[in-house]
Amino acid sequence: MNLKLDHINLTVNDFNESALWYKKVFDFDLLEIGETYDARKWGIVGKNDIMICMTELGKSSKSPEWPSPKSPSSEGPSMNHFGLRVAERELWEQTLKVNALKLYYGGINEYPHSVSWYVKDPNGHTIEVSYTEKNQMEFPPLDRDLAKTVGAGKDIKVG
After folding, report:
1. Which of 13, 27, 40, 112 is most exposed, with minimal Cβ within 10 Å?
2. What CATH superfamily is the domain 1-59?
């Protein structure tokens, strides 16, 4: 099966503010806009193959299906962050400065195969922005015995 991530869906406090922030910081275009059944604004922003769908929380909406990003529901798992990869490190570092973006988790994070910066959008969603010198992330082969422990002894396919 050939899969590709289609989109990420975020709940936001103010759709217009969020759409403008993603335009300013990542040059995302507004691709679609509408209203939900209860008159909350929603839309999709994106660039190339990346799409982020955003739905406004709404002042009167108390539905547990639409928790506030600043006050996530305590029930069950939640998203920690999502990641975007940039092709030009210098351009991203310039974007950080021009927009005076605050960095989290100690600033620039060096990993074995990449470097990352963590920023937050106006709603508090954490975004990991990564850079690698290669067009595609490459990882060394995973130890097969270690991989078997992930599936509780079941043989899982190791890439």
Report:
1. 112
2. 2,3-Dihydroxybiphenyl 1,2-Dioxygenase, domain 1 (3.10.180.10)
The order of strands in the sheet holding 50-56 is 8-12, 50-56, 41-47, 29-35
Radius of gyration of the chain (CA): 18
How far is C-alpha 137 from the geometric centre of its chain's CA atoms? 17
Distances from the Cα of 76 to the Cα of 2, 64, 72, angstroms: 29, 12, 10
Number of H-type helices and E-type strands within the chain: 3, 8
Instruction: Give the distance from CA 142 to its chain's centroid.
Output: 26
Do β-strands 50-56 and 41-47 pair in parallel, antiparallel, or remain unpaired? antiparallel
In sign, the C-alpha dihedral spanning 127, 130, 136, 139 is negative
User: What is the CATH architecture of 80-159?
Assistant: 2-Layer Sandwich (3.30)
pTM: 0.72
Instruction: List the beta bridge partners of residue 23.
Output: none
